[in-house]
Amino acid sequence: MISVVEHFPVLVVVISLLSAFTILLVGKLNKNSCCFISFATILVQLVMSIFILNHVRTVGTIRYWLGGWSPPWGIEYVVDALNAYILVILLFLALLCVMYSKRNIEHELPQKIVHYYVIYQLLITGLCGITVTGDIFNMYVFIEITSLSSYALIASRGKIALKASFTYLVLGSIGACFFLLGIGFLYSVTGSLNMHDLSLLLPPLYGNRVVQAAFVFFIVGLSIKMALFPLHTWLPDAHSFAPAEISALLSGIIIEVSTYAFIRVCFSVFTLNFLALPIIFDFLCWIAALGIIVGSILAIAQYNLKRMLAYSSVSQMGYIMLAVGLSLSTTTHPWCGLTPALMHILNHALMKGCLFLVAGAFIYKAELWNITDFRGLGRKMPYTCAAFTLAAISMIGVPPSVGFVSKVYIIFASLDAGKFVFVAIMLLSTLLNLVYFWRVIETMYMKREEGEESHSSSSKDEIPLSMLIPILTLASLCIIIGILWLTEIPIPILDQVNSLFGLGGGAP
Amino acid sequence: MTEIVESMIPLLAILCPAIASIFIVLSGKRPNIREGWTMFASILQFLIVISMIPVIIGGDVIKYTFFTAFPGVDFGFEVDAFGLIFAITSSFLWILVSSYSIGYMRSLHEHAQTRYYFCFAWAIFGAVGVALSGNLLTMFVFYEILTVSTYPLVAHDQTPEALFAGRKYLAYLLSSGCFFLAAVVLTYHFAGTTDFVSGGIPNLASEASRGALMVLFAIFLLGFMKAAWMPFHSWLPTAMAAPTPVSALLHAVAVVKAGVFGVVRTVCYVYGIDLMSELGLGIILVSLAAFTMIVASLFAIAQDNLKRRLAYSTISQLSYILFGVALLNPMGVEGAMLHIPFHGFMKITLFMCAGAIMVVTGKRNISEMGGIGRTMPVTMVAFTIGALGMSGIPPVCGLISKWYLCIGTLDAHALSLLAVLMISSLLDIVYFFPIIFTAFFGNSEEWTDGGNKNEKTGIKEAPLFMLVPIALTATFSVIFCLFPNTFYILELAKLAVASLGGV
Questions:
Q1: Looking at the complex, does the CB of residue B189 fall below 8 Å from at least one CB of chain A?
Q2: Which domain holds residue A422?
Q3: Containing domain of residue B409, as a range?
Q4: Which residue in chain B is spatially nearest to A375 when comparing CA positions?
Q5: HSE toward the beta carbon, residue B349, CA cutoff 13 A
Q6: Mind listing the pLDDT tens digit for each residue in B372-418?
Q7: In this predicted model, what pLDDT tens digit does every residue of B321-345 receive, in sequence order?
Q8: Contact A431 B163 (CB under 8 A)
């Protein structure tokens, strides 16, 4: 007997897609309903994803054959612990962002409310699709859906955002081309597009140059998508000119989902036995380490808060990729395998989501973009600033926040792998984070406003509740999840991922 | 022999300031209620801490585990005699400083008082957490909380100078936090645990090479920059830009003592005294401490700003503690452990006096303080007691700890170190005596501005909220000399030293 949960992977995608069209139709009649439809859809999706996660934990991997066609021919949706985990994070952040966008979009894009929500819902469809699919060409299609909708969303503010969007479009398309070429190469030697099928067909061909070239194409293509250090150039503009909730999604989820695709390709399509994997991963560690440092230094040089956060994302992607790079050589539970990387995907989504939403709140209230203009905000917008402080402290890695846990896990992982130099890099990065985040905190709370004595009645001027709730939720989760990680309650999910891929010295 | 008692008491002690901080924010609009919470929490916390004494004196250890963070590392508290000494000191002084803060902040009409009390509570949370934590990881967590929560206090004035002080403070202490984290992780990597064990973590020596252990110790020392050893001391004098109660509690008691506390923990409970002497690390630490003692005292002589002079005095006195521990014998360690509370009481007296002078007369420099002993007799008598204690003159408690330290040097057969101690004590007199002399015998010739001429001889003391704590700490400084076992401190120190074993 098939549990109803087994249908959820496809429903998550289909509901989202249909909702996009519904919004378009209903939006013609009533603009205000768009946000609620979107919110309701994502809420349902989130609930489904939680059921999926639960099912995966208790019963096992869900395989759904689209149209009943069996795998090598038809498209298959496969949900194991890895995608279920990513799916929950992605939908949770999307839900908070849509809640936040209610007032923010009315303020920023009053003319384009309907279109915004349609594209937003398409973006979510694409992201969910990437996550649940078990077919590599299908994944490409969803990557394109995601990218196209994010180009549009980034450009939605017009003017300078158009340029940012165009840069992203060009680079994103190049990335997608590489990915498609990789798929083409693999198809030409194996004749299959199903990931599981590929993983069975490929091993005899590991020495084949075409297969190796395909692997490199995948790596490069996805590296562009996830803004890995030297290929990050599209990211700062795109992140800083998009509306706040899109920046939050871009930074918190979109590049992370690309990381997910990367992990999926490396470990599910090519398996651990693939010869080139260790070499590439060693290389990846160094690139990531470089990215961590350079990203942070560039962030220090920024005056615009959102740009600063964007560069910080480059650095944080370095954390994730460093953790992925180390995953092959770690063996000690609980920081073995992909655990630190997946942990940081969640942590980064929480922290960066919160920070970008706060940055958006400043823009919403007073069009404040530059850090130097934040004087006295601590008193005007106490809750928002408190949330920023919590998230920033978490980015710096002060215990017991999520940032601290990630940092410790990555440090343990690098010790475990015997690469002491990365310990030093992680610690150095902490200090660099301190420099650029503390500057903001200091300006918000400590710097006096000019002529403060004259108008001491700097009364509270908070953002609306519907924007405040997502911010405060994320900020408090930065601490709560941090403590949860320390208690190791959520670790079994990640262990399941590791045992799936045979990482971390076998089953824990 | 040693029984482990599972109990929630350490958690309750920690929760007092944490919960109080919430109420402080909620009642931010009503100062009396807000300060009421601070006082209430501080007294309650002290009582809870005190209630642990009987169990510890009985030779047992109180343990409370939240959860296991990593295999072999529990996140939790383990209260032993040494930790309890520090906890008693911090929580008791919190009561007095709270009262003093009320007087000080209200007299000066300081801004952002809610933030001040809020951060103060969290700083105590961190300090007591450090004292009670049962392993390096837990300690690190509280150590960082302490650093971050004291930043708003240091930068409280929000003047460019205070902001600079705050920045420097964070830069030093969070960098040191990185080293601390590295040290914790490396210890765990080598030994598979970070629990404090009396006499050292057993398998640390067998798992790590000699060179690795030496490097690790250097990282540990860098991690405890809060101990303000030279040349990494300069954040402390800069941080004197903070309001005086902050300097008093945090820079004479909580923050810096958390640093030296950490060093003592590392030496006695992570490395263990045997391993330390085997590696020859005691000599390195002792030289560092001796250097700091002398040089900081010399620096202190050159300062005219009273708080800065006290800050350098603190740097010098903290190194007494490092010095004692580095002697690696029972007497030295006991002297070091005793010096933590004793120095705390004396230094807090001095700082509170400096603050009282500032509130009443607005004077910060020693050269302006001529004749101040005649207008503020109580304050200056307290100051004199504190200063005498610092120099190790009876009947103030500084004598006791110095006595132990001296015997420690003799036990170590190191007469040169005894000479260092003596010289440093002499220097203490050199920089404290002029203050006392100026205060009581100096002329107050500038005291002629405005219509204040008639008040020349009138007594003008600080408000009672400030005066009472000053008198109390001064009294306690004397009591500790006459009855060193007040609050069982001597007994606890002896117990802690006895349990170290192998000495």
A1: yes
A2: 276-449+460-508
A3: 4-447+455-500
A4: B158
A5: 29
A6: 888 888 889 999 999 988 888 878 888 888 889 999 999 888 888 89
A7: 999 998 888 888 889 999 999 999 9
A8: no
